[in-house]
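quick q for whoever's on today - can somebody do inverse folding on this one?? i tried earlier but teh output was garbage lol. tokens:
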């Protein structure tokens, strides 16, 4: 594959990932809005708090991934600076670490 074609394929993959991350960000934002609406049911308070925390964490991870895309650092392990395999990014688009570093991270 020529460098131009590889570059075009990489750009297409990044464009797809950005669209996926943006759509997921919108979904999670809507979910957070829904979760923070007070239903008045005190029995749901603990579950609702856990869901809100998980949704906020997801939004932060997606926001960080979008920032890395904008800054050009997306797809590079934050620990060892090795490229994160495309397959991993397709499964976990907000991945910050390669698998070996993630395992060390715990």
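ok took a stab at it. sequence:
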């Amino acid at each position: 594959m020529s460098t131009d074609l590889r570059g075009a394929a990489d750009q297409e993959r990044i464009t797809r990932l950005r669209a996926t991350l943006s759509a997921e960000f919108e979904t999670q934002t809507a979910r957070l809005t829904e979760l923070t609406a007070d239903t008045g049911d005190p029995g749901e308070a603990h579950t609702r708090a856990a869901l809100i925390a998980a949704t906020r964490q997801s939004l932060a991870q997606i926001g960080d991934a979008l920032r890395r895309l904008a800054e050009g650092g997306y797809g590079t392990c934050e620990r060892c600076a090795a490229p994160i395999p495309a397959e991993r990014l397709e499964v976990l688009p907000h991945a910050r670490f390669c698998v070996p570093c993630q395992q060390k991270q715990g």
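fwiw The helical segments are 3-36, 45-71, 86-91, 99-105. also Residues 3-75 form one domain. so keep that in mind when u check it
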